[in-house]
Amino acid sequence: MKQNCLIVLTFFLTTVFHTFSQDITISGTITDGKNGEDLFGASVIATDMTNTGARTNVYGFYSLTIPVGRHQLAYRNSGFEDQIFDLVITQDTVINLELFLLKEVQEIEEVNITSKRSNSNITSAQMEVTRLDPQSIKTIPILFGEQDIMKTLQLTPGVKGGGEGSAGFYVRGGGADQNLILLDESTVYNASHLLGFFSVFNSDAIKDVALYKSGIPAEYGGRASSVMDVRMRDGNNKEIAASGGIGLISSRLTIEGPLVKDKSSFIISGRRSYADLFLVFSPDEDIRDTKLFFYDLNAKVNYKLSDKDRIYLSGYFGRDKFGLSDDFGFDWGNKTGTVRWNHLFNDKLFMNTSIIYSAFDYQFSIGQGEDGFGIRSSIRDFNVKQDYNYYLNTNNSLKFGVNAIHHTFEPGVLESGDNVGFNQIDLEKRHALEVGAYLQNEQKVGNRWAFMYGLRYSGFNYMGKGTAYEYAEDGAITSEESYDSFESIKYYQGLEPRLSASFIINESNSIKVGYNRIFQYIHQLSNTTTSSPTDVWVPTSNNVKPQIGDQIAVGYYKNFKKDEYQVSVETYYKWLQNQIDYRPNANLILNGQIERELVYGEGRAYGIEFQIKKTKGDFTGWFNYTLSRALRSFDEIDGGQEFSARQDRIHDLNLVLTYNISKKFVVSTSFVYYTGDAVTFPSALYEMDGYEVPYVGSRNGNRLPDYHRLDLGLTWYLKDKKNYKHNLSFSIYNVYNRENAFAVRFVDDFEDNTTGQTQAVQTALFKIIPSITYNFNFK
Amino acid sequence: MKNIFYIIIALLFTATSCQKVIDLKVNDAEPKMVIEAKYDAIKEIVTVQLSKTINVFSNEGYPQISGANIEIIDANGVVSTLNDDGNGAYSLTNYAPQYNSEYTIKINVEGEVYEASDYLVPVVPLDSLTTEFQPQSVFSDEGYLLSMNATDPVGSNFYRAIRKVNGEYKRDLSDQFLFDDSFSEGNSQSVPLFFEFYQLEDTVQIELISYSEKSYVYFSELVAIAQGSDGSAAPANPVSTWSKEALGSFTVFGYDTKTIIISE
Fold first, then answer.
1. Which residue of A has its CA nearest to B192?
2. In which domain, by residue range, is A556 found?
């Protein structure tokens, strides 16, 4: 049943920027008619012309320049009902359009995998971008039943999770620190909760995530391998609404609504886990005092000052806390804040200015008062950014902008009680200014070619106040020099070309190529093989050079059956310079001379990714297979021989299927298989100092057992009550109870082993885990 | 500190995690020479043990290498020869120490000469042992916490504490306690030994070894690697101090000993 009466169309006829040419510009915003959220990546197409259309930017704004005359305009967005108009347009026109979800138009309960709009993968110059929104992943089964956009991204081609117990991820053979993770433009330095079992992204507060893994647009810089751009929702500007979920180990609640109808809205969303609440049942008082939880809070307000100006304020605050009675405490968290101002100079020139704050810190405490000591470390950024979109004409749209980030690194502070006997340590803070400027054009040439080309300039000023050290081969300090505040110690700069091109073979076939070079000026040091909150961020300095990533990628895309099926093959080759590793047994905590623990080398990665995706109908899902390598080499490690990076998983396969059984039930499943991580094992044993000691073999020369796992999910939509919708979601993680290796130890005393012979003993974190979550929303 | 992370992981998952023996292939290395050479300046004895590495899953013993010619040379160039005691063991007794001097050892075996040297640093005195009662906590039952009191001399110092409780040396890897003065340079310090709490009437003997930096680094790395390298991002063998490719080290050291019987 179509309900066309839902169409709301507003015309503002303006003649402000009258032009004498035969071209006119149609501009405006495209929003979700249900809650007023801006739609990013929605398109306006002049269907009477070939290859002519525009796409909304992240603030929902579009601008399309076409000749005067009669046109048919189609407004489209994935999962939404198309709106098509026949219009005679004689002057510049503002069309602000609201689109409605297909499901609301057709009264279908759920559209599960809302892909990018049909065949958008075929016609845009941008290399394949993986986009997900929380709505589309709702029914995919996930650990503890908490839907998680980062976990779902790890099921897409080229993205590999850090393994169980790690929220870090790897994109196309790059390191875990080579992903720029942005939340409303703020850098998120540690995207994990509960040691990696949850990500910091609360799905209820997230509008959309885009993962760029090749042909990365010039507007992004700073990380060598990928960009994960997460945008928070703006909040419902039509009516007050609440939603939430109650799960076994965490619950969440979101409230949103208009402050001034159609002008201003807010959203506030919180989560807390309570795995530790069960500990109150413990008979042991100390265990009852154990704390283990996280919470986070997302909040955002926006205000439309006028048709041309809009202001957004958004923030995130999250913290993990772990404590054992009064003896031991460990907590960490991110804080981010963004103030944004959108301004429309005219119907072709859009500007956004942002002021951004971002911080991450962790602290330990052991013992209390005079008998205890604590260690803390942090990183803090202030960032100013200005971006322009200039819709020059039908075939060219320009983007340009500048930004500057001031970084402050606090490597470590030790504060100790008098009875402990430790000296106070306050490692010198380190400072840097990171700048960027870019210009990019997206150009259509003829009916078949589209190009996106741009250049980014990046610079990094490592500066005082502080001391710069120089080291000899063996790590001894050879010189030290003091610098005043803002005095430059060392300046690095680079030019980063970015290029994407697409060639449309026909309606359903296209080929794309992409190249990008990116400089990375800050680096994460980790002395464990899994991601840990104690991983240290360090700046490029007089000793540490910037990492440089170059990648070339080629893809072929084909759609079948009116875009119902999408098939793609992408292949890539990536070069990484100035990669960082460590001297043996490097100590990264409270080390004022951390740079002498580092060694530098190179990396390369290459692979091919196959994917088939079904995007329409009751039965949807995707299957992908990646064949790839990720290699590194360092003069100091195994004599400079090339070795596998930890994440060098040669075969990687993901399957995700969702089926709408009826209006009431949706079932889903996912299956994951990958080659075991490359790890370092002993290659011999010897006796020393009375101990049996392993002789360490070549770096990452061995493999953990292969990883595989099957999950199942069922969502049961309970009967709606007036303004109240609710469902129960059940999931089973690791259905066939596979014990996947988290780590392997070599010991001769495991359980009842009396032979004295060494055995390989693996630790698995999870067996089968069922869970249930109750979700609701009402208005 | 990375261990703290693992303790947390372990605590988190004791309920759900599971361990089992698996079949796994590892790349075997060629057998390598292993040399453990020590000069205990308090007992005035030099010992050397020569052996070779074995495969990880081997069920054979370590091959012990006899028939080597071994000499120790002091700072004055005086050469003394060790006796071959058989079964890979060599020794020299009544070898009097000269503190603040360098010793070199030369091992001629299987047609190769292996050489290494170490510096005998003065022994830092262990002033006293003290105890403090600790009530029951989440980590342990009640008992007495033992602390070592020593005055750290100016300059870098490197220590290892060895415990003997009721006549038995504590030899588990987790009992190993190597520390330096980087947090307490030049302080009069009280170093608590958190390994265990003692009960009344326990007899505890502490040997506080003073190492050269070279030996301290070697044993720290050895203990780290012996404890397992599965969590380390940069697992590596301890840096060998031998002139030719061989595992092990040459260490010269002295120590101060104190004994306490735990009382209220």
1. A420
2. 231-235+298-656
Q: Which of A5-9, A530-534, A687-691 has the lowest mean pLDDT?
A: A5-9
Confidence at A127, pLDDT banded by 50, 70, 90: low
Pick the last residue of a domain from A607, A641, A656: A656
How many Cβ atoms sit within 10 Å of the Cβ of residue A295?
Answer: 18
Say which of B4, B190, B235 has its CB closest to residue A696. B235
Q: Which of A281, A526, A528, A738 to mutate to test the interface with B (most CBs of B within 10 A)?
A: A528
Tokens (6 digits) for B24: 């796994």
Chain B hits for A286, CB-CB cut-off 8 Å, are 137-138
Q: 3-state SS string over A556-613?
A: EEEEECCCCEEEEEEEEEEEEEEEEEECCCCCCCCCCCHHHHEEEEEEEEEEEEEEEE
The nearest alpha carbon in chain B to A748 belongs to B57
> How do residues A579-597 score in pLDDT, each as one tens digit?
998 877 677 777 888 888 8
Tell me which of A42-51, A112-121, A205-214, A585-594 is least confident: A112-121
> Which of A81-90, B60-69, B151-160 has the largest mean confidence?
B60-69
Show which of A608, A629, A656 is a domain's final residue: A656
CB-CB: which of A534, A683, A761 is closest to B56? A683
The answer to whether B24 contacts A688, with C-beta atoms less than 8 Å apart, is no
**Residue B63's pLDDT is what?**
94
Residue A754 lies in a domain: no
Domains along chain B? 33-120 (2.60.40.10), 128-230+255-261 (2.60.40)
Indicate which CATH number applies to the domain containing A69: 2.60.40.1120
CATH number at residue A397: 2.40.170.20
What phi, psi does A42 have (nearest 5°)?
A: -70, 155
Residue-wise DSSP of A488-547: EEEEEEEEEEEEEEEEEEETTEEEEEEEEEEEE-EEEE-SBSS--TT-EEEE--SSSPPE
Contact state of B56 with A325 under an 8 Å Cβ cutoff: no
User: CA of B180 to nearest chain A CA: how many angstroms apart?
Assistant: 12
Pairing label, strands A226-232, A179-183: parallel
- Does residue A122 form part of some domain? no
pLDDT of residue B140: 64
Judged by CB atoms closer than 8 Å, whether chains meet at B139 and A701 is answered as: no
Cα→Cα distances A30→A60, A63, A263, A344, A387, Å = 5, 11, 15, 15, 20
* A766 chain-B contacts, CB cut-off 8 A: 16-17
Q: Which residue of B17, B24, B219 is in closest CB contact with A760? A: B24
CA distance A602 to chain B (A): 16
Q: Please name which of A728, A719, A683 lies closest in space to residue A701, comparing C-alpha atoms.
A: A683
Say whether pLDDT at A152 is over 90: no
Residue A287 lies in a domain: no
Contact A413, A425 (CB under 8 A): yes
Provide the domain count of chain A.
Answer: 2
pLDDT beyond 50 at A112: no
The amino acid that residue A327 corresponds to is: D
- Residue spans of beta strands (DSSP E) within A35-166: 43-46, 53-55, 61-67, 69-76, 83-89, 93-99, 129-132, 159-161
pTM: 0.84
pLDDT at B258 over 90: yes
User: Does the pLDDT of residue A394 top 50, yes or no?
Assistant: yes
Q: Is the CB of A195 less than 8 angstroms away from the CB of B231?
A: no
Q: Which residue of A has its CA nearest to B186?
A: A423
**Residue A379 included in any domain:** yes
Q: Give B230→chain A minimum CA distance, Å.
A: 6
